[in-house]
Amino acid sequence: MLTDTFGRTHNNLRISVTDRCNLRCTYCMAEEVVFLDRADLLTFEEIAHFVRVAVPLGIDKLRLTGGEPLLRRDLPRLTAMLAEIPNLEDIGLTTNGLLLANQAQALFDAGLRRINVSLDTLDPGRFRAISRRDGLERVLDGIAAAKAAGFHPIKINAVVIRGTNEQDVVPLARFARENDLEMRFIEYMPIGAEAWERSKVYFAHEILEQIEQRIAPLVPADDYDPRAPAMDFQYVEGRGRVGIIASVSRPFCASCNRLRLTCDGKLRNCLFALDEVDLKPLLRERHDDAQLAETIRRNVRDKWEGHEINTARFVKPPRTMHAIGG
Ligand code: SAM
Ligand code: SF4
After folding, report:
1. What is residue 306's predicted lDDT score, i.e. its pLDDT?
2. Which ligand approaches the C-alpha of residue 189 most closely?
3. Which residues have any ligand 1 atom within 6 Å of their CB?
4. How confident is the model at residue 161 (pLDDT cuts 50, 70, 90)?
5. pLDDT digit string (tens) for 101-153?
């Protein structure tokens, strides 16, 4: 088991497959970015090798992310390679949806079952302002294709920023409810390229208030898990669920079970970690699985108590979100 000194066990791995992106969301990355050389990215074989070593240590759940993961050529091939690994119970994907219409079926056929699509607004002008690109229609087509391919549930992730898109909370929640999608709102975190201000965080309780006042009352979902990152709610009447990831107002560090592998092979034990361990030499040159396993164990053991967003001690990691893997 991958246990740290605070007693937290880790079974959940996020794998970034690229730092490239076809959007430039202001809260995530800068407009101009120098991307990694392709030769620096882990190959699919190296990623699958890492997972084969990590699963016997206790990893049974993973999520592919980026950057925009669907920009990595032939992602269904990686998905199929991972789906074959015994004792890996769950493979998910987080995408901005722009390229999903063409890839949803192939991903489903390769064994992917859980998909999260990021969408912060249904307004084309605000979509452009937030992501610095056009593409709302393509995202909506991608969601429709994912439904048609058989993905269920499909989660929609929206970051809510005060002064930018708090007016989108209700339309997004309605859109999700009407289309049998699960809506998840995320508090704005200091992990992007732009200067973060606490005053721009639109808090979980404000999101809930909007939905309850303008759509319908919510209650904790039947499967509500107080230790999970998302606080899950369901409407009192009728169908529909809403999740809120309140990383700022209700940090879930005490029950964190996540590890991250960046696209260039760095192991990170926290989204906000300031240190990372370079696994590429072990995966690419030395092929020493015992040492790789020990390095993963040590990285988990060394994990800190939690991020310090809410203190003056907080230091933003040198990598921004697109290069870590959200
Ligand atoms: N490109 C894909 C996408 O957008 O879904 C996957 C990578 S993206 C970094 C993963 C998630 O991180 C997205 O849902 C995005 O909204 C979220 N994210 C990025 N920057 C954030 C921030 N500063 N605060 C909160 N969430 C953030
Ligand atoms: Fe790209 Fe996702 Fe970051 Fe937006 S949130 S810039 S889509 S990686």
Report:
1. 86
2. 1
3. 21, 27-28, 65-66, 68, 94-96, 118, 157, 159, 186, 188-189, 191-192, 321-322, 326
4. very high
5. 999 999 999 999 999 999 999 999 999 999 999 999 999 999 999 999 999 99
Name which of 162, 171, 155 is nearest 121 in CA terms.
Answer: 171
Which residues sit with their C-beta closer than 6 Å to ligand 2?
Answer: 21, 23-25, 28-29, 66-68, 96, 118, 131, 321-322
For the whole prediction, is pTM greater than 0.85? yes
Architecture per CATH, 2-324: Alpha-Beta Barrel (3.20)
**Where exactly are the structural domains of the chain?**
2-324
- Under 8 Å between Cβ of 96 and 35: no
| Cα(28) to centroid(ligand 2), Å | 6
pLDDT class of 287 with cuts at 50, 70, 90: confident
313/309 Cα distance (integer angstroms): 8
Query: Which of 324, 72, 281 lies closest to 189, judged by CA?
Result: 324
In the reported structure, the alpha carbon of residue 112 is separated from the centroid of ligand 2 by a whole-number distance in angstroms of 21
Whether the CB-CB separation of 85 and 51 falls below 8 Å is answered with: yes
